[in-house]
Amino acid sequence: MKQKLTRGKAYPRKCAHCAFGSIVEGDKEVLCTRNGVMQPDDCCSKYQYDPLKRQPKRQTLASGYSEEDFAL
Ligand code: SF4
Fold first, then answer.
1. For ligand 1, mutation pick of 29, 38, 50 (most atoms within 8 Å of CB)
2. Which of 19, 49, 48 is nearest to 31 (CA)?
3. pLDDT greater than 70 at residue 6
4. Domains in the chain, please, with CATH?
5. Which of 13, 23, 34 to mutate to test the pocket of ligand 1 (most atoms within 8 A of CB)?
6. Which tens digits make up the pLDDT trace of 13-35?
């Protein structure tokens, strides 16, 4: 199951999502405990998915709602 999640397009294999990497410099670089400074989109054979590092896409409401739809 875990491999199914990490091999899909929704969760691409990259240093920004790896358990060994720490994002620095405003998402421009990743400090890896194994390979040093890496780019966020790089990857290696030691990749280990960390679900807490993924930033989910922002949800948007469908258009067509008015303020009255949310009033009690
Ligand atoms: S270089 Fe490899 S081990 Fe290091 S953060 Fe990137 S994928 Fe993970």
1. 38
2. 19
3. no
4. 2-51 (2.20.70)
5. 34
6. 999 999 999 999 787 899 999 99
Q: Going by C-beta distance under 8 Å and a sequence separation of 6 or more, which residues neighbour residue 44?
A: 15, 34, 35
- With a 6 Å cutoff on the Cβ, whether 11 touches ligand 1 is no
Q: Pick the more confident residue, 19 or 12.
A: 19
Secondary structure (3-state) at 14: coil
Q: How remote is the CA of residue 59 from the centroid of ligand 1, in Å?
A: 29
The CA distance from 37 to 70, in Å, is 48
